[in-house]
Amino acid sequence: MSKSLKTTLFLIVLLISCFSTYAQNKKLPLLDALSVIEHQFKVSFSYADSAIKGVFVTFNTKDSLDTTLSNIEAQTTLKFNKLDSHFITVSSAVNNFSFQKLDEVIVSNYLTTGINKNKSGNITIQPKHFGILPGLIEPDVLQTIQALPGVLSVDETVSNINIRGGTHDQNLILYDGIKMFQSGHFFGLISAFNPYLTKNVTVIKNGTSAKYGDGVSSVIDMQLSDNTDDAFNAGIGINMITADGFVVIPLAKKTQLQLATRRSITDVLNTPTYNQYYKRVFQDSEVSNSQTSVSDNQTFRFSDISLKLLHDLGKKDKLRFTLLNVFNQLDFEEYTENSITPQNTTNQLKQQNRASALHYTRYWNNKLNTTVQAYYSNYDLKSSDYDIVNNQRLIQENKVINNGVKIDANYNLNAITILGGFQFDEVGISNLEEVNSPFFKRDIKRVLRTYSAYTEGIYNSKNKNTVIKLGLRNNYFRKFNMHITEPRLYLSQRFFKHFSAELSGEFKSQSTSQLIDLQNDFLGIEKHRWVLANDNTIPIIKSKQASFGLTYNKNKLFVSAEGYIKKVTGISTRSQGFQNQYQFINAIGNYNIKGIDILVNKQMDAFSTWLSYSYSTNNYAFDTLNNGIDFPNNFDVQHQINYGSTYQWKQLKLALGVNWHSGKPFTKPDNDNPINGNSINYKAPNSSRLADYLRTDLSATYQFKLGENKAVIGASVWNILDQKNIINTYYTLNNNQVSKIENVSLGITPNVSFRVRF
Predict the structure, then answer these.
(1) What's the CA gap between 612 and 661, in Å, rounded?
(2) Where are the domains of the chain?
(3) Residue 302's closest CA among 264, 275, 270, 353?
(4) What digits encode the pLDDT tens for the residues 229-268?
(5) SS3 assignment for 546-615
(6) Cα–Cα distance between 373 and 356 in angstroms, integer?
(7) Predicted pLDDT of residue 512
(8) Which superfamily does CATH assign the domain made up of 555-758 to?
(9) Helical segments of 367-470, H only
(10) Which residue, 602, 358, 413, 398, is CA-closest to 514?
(11) Which of 40, 176, 331, 618 has a beta carbon 3.0–4.6 Å from 593's, enabling a disulfide?
(12) CB-count exposure of residue 518 (10 Å: 0-12, 13-18, 19+)
């Protein structure tokens, strides 16, 4: 272990141990009282900040939970609603016309606090109440969902998340209702979305609501706070990669501004975390593999800024405006001394996603409300690549412009809720390539407009044992004069008090996808480019999925098992990242996956532990490839086991986890005849597998008072055993010799964070 890593680990231990134990006051602000109650009884509260602002209470820590809540209700105008044994909402006893009912939670603290499962079968994440997960000290949304069964990233990045065997571009990622085309900072190692303004994240793997289009694999829906009554609050934080801050400012009685920003510190401070990230991201790219020398004059930075302006026009009308900008930039100099006159040039890669939306919501009465949303999303990826030896410059650009209007209506008939809506969506995508010598330019632009209508009915029985959700969505693609009808289904039935069964099904489609033309596109760092369906060489992708699951939930023991089957058609070989005999082939086919996800979660006072296992088989079917015989999918990871444990003692939280999965497929050259002419002679596609993947993570946080404010210090170590995992293997042909290339996972990676909330 290097000296810098030893020093960092020593600091981690020192920082955690240098704070005194927690001391409790008898008379507290309600915010602090709720925090004590959460820790004492292992429950989670959900509330509007304005409801508890300026409220002070007294309580006896020896009382039961019910007695404590009753005493607080007697001292205030608040009401506590226990959705289950762990999740409690706090609301004012005074009727609020626009109070939003939460979807009832049936499993709280799913893995850790702040992660729950609701009655619609969806997993919800509340960053504000996020506890701790192994290897994570902050609520990184896209890292967090990888702890869920059936979710995996084969290369450890948030820009390549595979949910039930699908590719990352088959996930619909929404930010306050806006589709995002960029999901990661540091080219995939960090989520691009600042979690400290995010109120709620919904993850849907099947049984998707009909209001969602796109995303044949999943929906990841991030929502910001929508309450103008939230009191002023702010926070700042720093870790070994970024510094960030957020603020919520009440501008007037019914007007509020939410602002959050984050910036990398990598261009001003070199840390062990950055060094590990740098080696992981830039391996096998032009930054590290250039045939000419690359100088140390490299600059890498990223940032994001999000803003939401909220204004209530009256008791029945709400106006909301959301803005987000995500940015990455890499510059590095390349020089050579082989020519008569030494030369140097600067290569550059920029990646940016701008997004905005305007929402107007009208509450007509206690049963009916409508929302109109206009949205805009602009993604731009551009690189300038100079080849000094050949005096050649390559410019590449991928640009997406997505805008549209969506109208939703929600009508509540007590046990039955009816939803309906209409959406107009326009997306334009361009791809540019330009070479100066010899001059070549290719600029392809396509535009597609989609008109969609949906309706859905949700039935909840009075005894809360039955939930039925039936939906239907119709998409009309005007350019192709094509209608695609998508039925959706979710059914949940509780029986024998502690058991429940779930049945889900859906048809979905999407018109945008990501392709890889060459593995060295965009400096070999960001190889994927967005493209638009043309109903010919790039068809509209369609999926069919069904799943059935059983759960048991009693005495803080939760056990679930869900089997599923999914078929996705219209995929292109160019979207799958082949690095074998099919790398330059353009063929259309499908993949079929069957699997089962099992989770066991036990909670005991201060201790929580879980074990999940996923098994699946995922195969391609291309009529024109491999003699029409099915072969393993590039993301066919058949076995996956995740184990995690968390422990909380007063204000100290600890987490330890182990991640293991079998190796993904790859293709070896033929042993007897590895070269055929000017190309590699491969064996059967994906007939070999990488070695198993194993990683152990550790994290800890400690919360304490810093004056009148709350402060949290955290420390984590990713891959604490420094296991060398090969995450990708492929072969190249150089000077008539076959070379083996191996991409390695992150090594031991420490991180330390410090946050203050005002």
Answers:
(1) 11
(2) 1-98, 555-758
(3) 264
(4) 778 889 999 999 999 999 999 999 899 999 999 999 988 8
(5) EEEEEEEEECCEEEEEEEEEEEEEEEEHHHCCCCCCCCCCCCEEEEEEEEEEEEEEEEECCEEEEEEEEE
(6) 10
(7) 97
(8) TonB-dependent receptor, beta-barrel domain (2.40.170.20)
(9) none
(10) 398
(11) 618
(12) exposed
Name residue, tokens 């409220």.
55
Query: Which residue is listed with tokens 């009309």?
Result: 476
Fold match between domain 1-98 and domain 555-758: no
Query: pLDDT for 129-187, tens place per residue?
Result: 888 999 998 888 899 999 999 999 999 999 999 999 999 999 999 999 999 999 999 88
Cα–Cα distance measured from residue 207 to residue 209, given in angstroms and rounded to the nearest whole number: 7
- Average pLDDT of span 629-634: 97
Neighbours of 648 (CB within 10 A): 21
C-alpha gyration radius of the chain: 26
For residue 51, which amino acid is it? A
pLDDT at 2: 56
Helix (H, G, I), strand (E, B) or coil at 26: coil
List the structure tokens of 701. 């946080």
Beta-bridge partner residues of 533 = none
Residue from 186, 159, 298 nearest 240 by CA: 186
Beta-strand relationship, 218-224 and 171-175 = parallel
Q: CATH number for 1-98: choose from 1.10.150.130, 1.10.1740.10, 3.55.50.30, 3.40.50.920.
A: 3.55.50.30
For residues 379 and 399, the answer to whether their CB atoms sit within 8 Å is yes
DSSP code of residue 340: S
